[in-house]
Amino acid sequence: MDHMELENGINQARRPEPGRGFAVASLALGAAAFLCIFTMTLLPTIFLGCLSILFGILSRGNQRKPGNYALTGIIVSSCALVINFAMGALSFYTVFSNPEMTAQYWQMVDDTYEQMTGMGIEEILESYGVDPADLR
């Protein structure tokens, strides 16, 4: 084995596999998306989950199937997105199917706008020509 063959073997051993960075990023973002489920916020999970799926797909390169890290990231982020949407739909249904909870929600919105602008939500809607009774 001459010097040139040895050097080529070392360079090939040091060369990282293509798409490895995207695959690791997909796994990390998928785990972060899954952890964001517990914060009960919709947007961070959606943002991180979509990025994770995108990076998992990009990690394939010219290969037909993604690597293990990318596949795990895609699966975890997909599960996080499904759970996130299910929790959001359940929350929306819970609030707006019960008239008492709907009234509490609108009172909370009214209190928030009162604190922020000094006007209640009904006054703001009327200033735009919207009848607040139409929304309830």
Task: Based on the model shown, name its key terms.
membrane, transmembrane helix, mainly alpha, 6 helices, transmembrane, DUF4190 domain-containing protein
Helical element count? Answer: 6
- What would the principal axes of the Cα set say about the shape? elongated
Sketch the topology as an H/E string, one letter per element.
Answer: HHHHHH
Cα-atom radius of gyration? 25 Å
- Please give the alpha-carbon distance between the first and last residues: 83 Å
Oligomer: single chain
Structural class: mainly alpha
Q: Helical residue percent?
A: over 70%
- Mean of residue pLDDT? 84
Description:
The chain has 136 residues and is mainly alpha-helical. 74% of the residues lie in helices and 0% in strands. The model has no long low-confidence stretch (mean pLDDT 84). Keywords: Membrane, Transmembrane, Transmembrane helix. The chain crosses the membrane at residues 24-57, 69-96. This is DUF4190 domain-containing protein.
List the helices and strands and how they pair.
Blueprint: H1 3-14, H2 20-36, H3 43-58, H4 68-97, H5 99-117, H6 121-127
Helix pairs in contact: 2-3, 2-4, 3-4, 4-5
Briefly, what is this?
The protein is 74% helix and 0% strand. With 136 residues, the chain is an all-alpha fold.
